[in-house]
Amino acid sequence: MKPVLFILLTALAFTCGAQTRLRKTETLNFKEVWVWEYLDSEGKKQDMAIYHHPGKNYWLFTAEAYGLSGEMTEWVLAKPDGEYIQRYRDEHGATITLRDTLYFNTPAQLPRHYQSMGRMRNFGDKKFGFPEFRGIAFEVKYEKTTDQSLCYLVKVKKVMSPLYYFNQLNMEARLPVIFPTDLPADHLVLSEEIQTGGKVIRYRFRFISPTEYYIEI
After folding, report:
1. How far is CA 122 from CA 16, 118, 135, 155, in A?
2. What is the pLDDT of residues 124-147, one digit of tens each?
């Protein structure tokens, strides 16, 4: 074989191999959907659904979570290390993938301004095959504002921070529920009632349901 021909064939093989690596995708199957109920701007009850991959501890946000706020966004994948992957379509219909990373400034322990009230309450629905969560009530008083909050929390074997920090991403998609970001990563907010600016904001955890939701990354 002539040297020039050998070089051309080698270059072609390298190029094909690189293209194969670029085309390689991973299929993820989200087998759980976690649902919260909240009141919209008109005082009507709405659901916010977020998909979960228990094996990898990934969270998947779709229009079922952020509604019309992310009209061009197909989904946002959140990882426990703070990496977010956004898949959206531009004005020409082309699919684009963006990556961003947030630093989760999560405390190791529950902050002191969370004061236990000694009350407990169950959340969830066992008819879907998942156990209920037993939350503990906390009163939250902030030093620099007159805002007050009553919330129910429970420790879980999950990293919840990707949900709580979602609205800090530089994108149009926004969750209708604003979670506190001063919680340890393993604390699940089961409900919260906030008195702020003369109005009351409420949301609560409803249930976990089995599902099958696939994406490719």
Report:
1. 56, 14, 6, 13
2. 999 999 999 999 999 998 777 777
